[in-house]
Amino acid sequence: MPHSCFADEIAIDFPAVGRVVDGMRHAFLGEAEDRDVLAAEVSVSRREAAGGPVVHLSLPVRGVCLTCGGRGESWTEPCTECAGTGASLFSHPVRLALPAGVADGATFRFRLTSPQTGPVRVEVRVAVQSTLV
Ligand SMILES: [Zn+2]
Known about the structure:
This protein is mainly β. It has 2 helices and 8 strands. The protein has a 3-stranded mixed β-sheet with strand order 1-6-3, with no helix packed on it. It has a 3-stranded mixed β-sheet with strand order 2-8-7.
């Protein structure tokens, strides 16, 4: 489990609260610190939540600047793409299949990998609209 790779399509079929998430959190220990978790929120209607919605996210993932390869400069000039930081933000599309009956406030944690960034831990919070639309 700790070393499994997640593809862009992630099926989540467990409740967000309780032991499963705690177990995942423990599995993350020893890698990076919690502040490196990328937080996102998705909003679904109550009807969508009942049916097990599939949501599409575009996650801002920090990775190595492709222009300078992370050096922050090209030749002797500071890299203009990343302003010399060597890092760049990528938009990483993710398709997330939520379990039917997902509750408002449910939080899902998973890890995505991309060629630019390596593994990134993501925490997605689900907001269920109270209106019956
Ligand atoms: Zn750069």
